[in-house]
Hints:
By secondary structure, this protein is of the alpha+beta class. 24% of the residues lie in helices and 21% in strands. It has helices at 4-14, 53-63, 86-93, 114-117, and strands at 26-31, 36-40, 69-75, 100-105, 108-113.
Amino acid sequence: MDDALIAAARRAQARAHAPYSRFKVGAALEADDGRVFAGANVENASYGLTNCAERVAVGAAVVAGARRFTRIVVVTDADPPAAPCGACRQVLAEFGAGLVVEAVGPAGRRRWTLAELLPDAFGSRDLSGSAGAPVRRSDEP
Length: 141
């Protein structure tokens, strides 16, 4: 069963810039209002400067004003399908641990919540303000 979010991630994967690893990744992030933001990995000869597909999708969403997300699909050619890396998990955690993460590969799918992939994520509650109170983002309840 293929859906629009998976199709968007596959289109992004086809546009990935992965000349070094040849590991092309596409991601599609769904906002709570139904908008979809796609991203592809963009490698750099200095590997540390590579941008992952998930973080590219988050950046596109933030630029468009989206801050609440329901699901992200990550498409790779790995079997079993590859989950987001640790850095991407942390970036996604900024927007909520309830996010559904789905990895799709040639032979199947895997599905988690972000909280399952990154239990006890570092977040705004871990930062202290000048009065010792947690710093709150403007979009936090």
